[in-house]
Amino acid sequence: MINKLVEKIKKTNAPIVVGLDPMLNYIPEHIQKAAFAEYGETLEGAAEAIWQYNKGIVDATYDLIPAVKPQIAMYEQFGIEGLKAFKKTVDYCKSKDLVVIGDVKRGDIGSTSAAYAVGHLGSVQVGSKSYVPFDEDFATVNPYFGSDGVKPFMEVCKEHKKGLFILVKTSNPSSGEFQDQLVDGRPLYELVGEKVAQWGEELMGDDYSYIGAVVGATYPEMGKVLRKVMPKSFILVPGYGAQGGKGADLVHFFNEDGLGAIVNSSRGIIAAYKQEKYASFGAENYADASRQAVLDMIADIDGALKNR
Amino acid sequence: MINKLVEKIKKTNAPIVVGLDPMLNYIPEHIQKAAFAEYGETLEGAAEAIWQYNKGIVDATYDLIPAVKPQIAMYEQFGIEGLKAFKKTVDYCKSKDLVVIGDVKRGDIGSTSAAYAVGHLGSVQVGSKSYVPFDEDFATVNPYFGSDGVKPFMEVCKEHKKGLFILVKTSNPSSGEFQDQLVDGRPLYELVGEKVAQWGEELMGDDYSYIGAVVGATYPEMGKVLRKVMPKSFILVPGYGAQGGKGADLVHFFNEDGLGAIVNSSRGIIAAYKQEKYASFGAENYADASRQAVLDMIADIDGALKNR
């Protein structure tokens, strides 16, 4: 799957991923109204609104981008109905040949970690039959448990050619509370990065590993160091746009080959029509605003990479 | 909710929680057969088997115990159908007046963390209506993000009188890879424990805080230190039984008042009929075996607390 991601990035010249993190207040009124007219103001109605909203964005952008990253929390908050919309979104994106990064940030140990891995990346056995429950291509994983938490995911990745992005240095302001603490003079996130590199060696694709890392755009200097610590790991970079990261901050996350990083934007793309810059599209044409925001983001990053 | 947990522990004299972590291979054949006869060897069939298995265990033990801890991964691995069985289990346990600890180990930042909190502990707004999606009483949370990850959960806990157990020192062999790293001469888990104590001060119940911690039974010496670091936090202790922890290892997790800890056993209770000790019950009477295992666990811990 990492090979497919690399190939699609080269083809689109767009090392970006669109974060499908739908909040109800992002969703244009006409979509909410139609969904509520059909299902009422119910969890089912909310799920239908999310799904129609996502579909519009995917239809308007899939030819420009290699990947999407649905954030499962935004679906899980609507319970079972929300999770059905998550599944529908994953399936639809895959039908458009997009790489799907399930932003699930799961993490546990042993058989429990294996259960998450099977549910999101693998297949589960029921008697003599086998099923693929959520079937994302990559999943994000929390490293706090150490190797016991990650290895069961790796087993499933090996079997199903799926990949992981392990949280290393997250984009939020308080990420330093634990992640930056010095261990023998070096921050904890570097230790986690070293482990990612080690785990990654066990699961290599052609040029990059199936095991990537999450490093926030908001910490470009740390990204520079971590790029060297994990040379064969793709870095998934959240925090572009809404969280304050800019194209110029991102160059250090990339290798000399122009690869090695994929930058996420969620709100900045999916709710672009709410920004002054794209307001002229209007809420009815929210998906066209998203398309323009994708084009602008590609140009911003491409420009930054050319000027480095 | 922490007050209710304390009250129920006092009433049952059982500082224990039954982990409802159903694996298909734990489930007696007669239950699997009946479920597959009705729904086929499908995800729905697996979910039905899980639900019937859980119901049997809850019916046989609810009068002895204060709380249950369903591990969502074991349901999530069966996709939407599995998550319906999770929801059904949570609802049923609440109808039996059990405190439900959702072992979800979620964690993210800002609005994403808030979405998980709303989904599992709070209520979500859809237009003019409000819904409670999963409605557990407590949730387990991963602290890797720092305060940004925990605070949104705390907001929801304040509003809905729900609680958290934050991962501090996990029970698995490799938990030391990151959690034991020394920061200024002290292990990281102590720093996390200190944060738990601080967060806990903001959300106090009568005697204990709504913010508890997870510390593995397999690390009793660390439990001793952490007990002092977080005097007002309940400690949820996994790793009893199957993972190797014994009653005598557990006394340090408790305060002098005999409270402050709640010990989880999953496999040891729910698959008791598979142990030699309880084999005479037979698979048909698996729930009676679970009841006996609960009684034995209560006696083991009670004995250890009396002998300290």
Structure description:
2 copies of one chain form a homodimer. Chain A has 308 residues and is of the alpha/beta class. Chain A has 12 helices and 12 strands. In chain A, the strands form 3 sheets. An 8-stranded parallel β-barrel of chain A has the order 1-2-3-6-7-10-11-12, surrounded by 7 helices. In chain A, a hairpin with a 2-residue loop joins β8 (182-183) and β9 (186-187). The radius of gyration of chain A is 19 Å and the shape is globular. The interface between A and B is large, with 72 and 72 residues.
* Shape, principal axes of CA atoms of chain A: globular
Helical fraction of chain A = 40-55%
Oligomer: homodimer
Q: Total number of helical segments of chain A?
A: 12
Biggest sheet strand line-up of chain A:
1-2-3-6-7-10-11-12
Distance between the termini of chain A: 29 Å
The greatest interface here is:
A-B, 72 and 72 residues
What can be said about the biggest beta sheet of chain A?
Answer: 8 strands, parallel, barrel
Rounded radius of gyration of chain A (Å): 19 Å
Structural class of chain A: alpha/beta
Based on DSSP secondary structure assignment, what is the total number of beta strands of chain A? 12
What is the percentage of strand-forming residues of chain A?
A: 15-25%
Q: Please, what is the average pLDDT of chain A?
A: 96
Q: Could you name the ranges of chain A where pLDDT drops below 50 across 5 or more consecutive residues?
A: none
What's the SSE blueprint?
Two copies of one chain form a homodimer.
Chain A: H1 2-12, E1 16-20, H2 29-39, H3 43-61, E2 67-70, H4 73-76, H5 79-95, E3 99-106, H6 110-121, E4 124-126, E5 129-131, E6 138-141, H7 147-160, E7 163-169, H8 176-179, E8 182-183, E9 186-187, H9 188-201, E10 211-215, H10 220-229, E11 235-237, E12 261-265, H11 267-270, H12 286-306
Parallel strand pairs in A: 1-2, 1-12, 2-3, 3-6, 6-7, 7-10, 10-11, 11-12
Antiparallel strand pairs in A: 4-5, 8-9
Helix pairs in contact in A: 2-3, 3-5, 3-12, 6-7
